[in-house]
Amino acid sequence: MKPTYPYQPFLLRLLHGLTGAFLVLAILTAFWTYNTYDGRWGTIPLPAYKAIEGIHGTFGLYTLLIFPAFVFYAFNRGKHRLVQPEALTTLTQKIGQPIWWVNLSRFVNTLTLIALTFALFSGKMMDEKWLPNGELKHFWYYGHLVSWVVMVVAIAIHLLMNAKVGGTPFLLSMMTWKFRPQDSPRLWKNHIIAWWKNFQLDTWPNWRHILTHRPKLELAIWISLIAAWLISIAKELV
C-alpha cells in the first residue's frame, strides 16, 4: 500500500521551492564571501575566491525577485500558516498540546519571513566596494551578517517544526511535482485575470480601507521591499 501525503497547493510548493533554493545558495555564498573578505570570527579552508561576492549578490537578487510573490501568497492563500491573533494565548496556556506546536510552527514561519526581509533589505543597503576595499565596520555590513545568522537558525527551526507538526509525510509533500487538475498552472492565467478585474473594481475605490485592514506585518514587509529598491536605485544615481 502506497503511503499517503497531505496535499500542498502547487503554487505554494513552487514559490516555496524557488525561494528556498535561492536562499540556501545565497546563504552558502554569503559564508564564502565572509570567509574570503573577513574571517574575524573564524574561517574554514575554502579558496579565497574574489568573485564570490558577486555570485552571492546574484543569488540574493534572485531571492529578492521571487520573494514578493511568496509574500503575496503567504498573506493571502497561505495566511493560515502564519501567526494568528490567538497565538499568544495558545502558546502560554496550552504548552505541549498539539495546537501549541501548530501555533509555534506558525510563529516560526512568520519569524522566517521577517528575517528574510531584513536580510534582503540590509543587503541592498550595502555597497559592493566595501568588502574588496577592506571596509568591514559599516553598520549595514554588520546588520547583514547578523541577518544571515538569524536566517540559518530560523530555517533550521522551521524544518524542525514542520517535521514535528507534519512529520515525514508533510516534508515529502512539499517536494513532489504532482498537482490536482484544479491546481494546474494552465489555470493560473485565468485566475490572475479574474483577480485583477476584481482588484480594479473593488480595491481602488476602497484602497484606504484595504490598507488599514491588511496585516501590519504584511504592510511593513512591502514597505521594506519597496524602500530597498528605491534606496538602491537612488544610490546608483548619485
Low-confidence stretches: none
Q: How many structural units, i.e. domains?
A: 1
What's the gyration radius in Å? 20 Å
How much strand? Answer: under 5%
- The span between the termini is 65 Å
Calculate the mean pLDDT score and round it.
Answer: 85
CATH fold-level name: Fumarate Reductase Cytochrome B subunit
Decide which structural class fits the backbone.
mainly alpha
Provide the CATH top-level class.
Mainly Alpha
Oligomer: single chain
Report the CATH architecture.
Up-down Bundle
The residue fraction in helices comes out at 55-70%
Describe the structure.
The protein has 238 residues and is mostly helical. The chain has a single domain (10-178, 207-237), classed as Up-down Bundle (Fumarate Reductase Cytochrome B subunit), CATH 1.20.950. The protein is built from 8 helices and no strands. Helix 1 runs antiparallel to helix 2 (52-74) and helix 4 packs parallel to helix 8. The radius of gyration is 20 Å and the shape is globular. It starts with 9 loop residues before the first helix and ends with a helix. The model has no long low-confidence stretch (mean pLDDT 85).
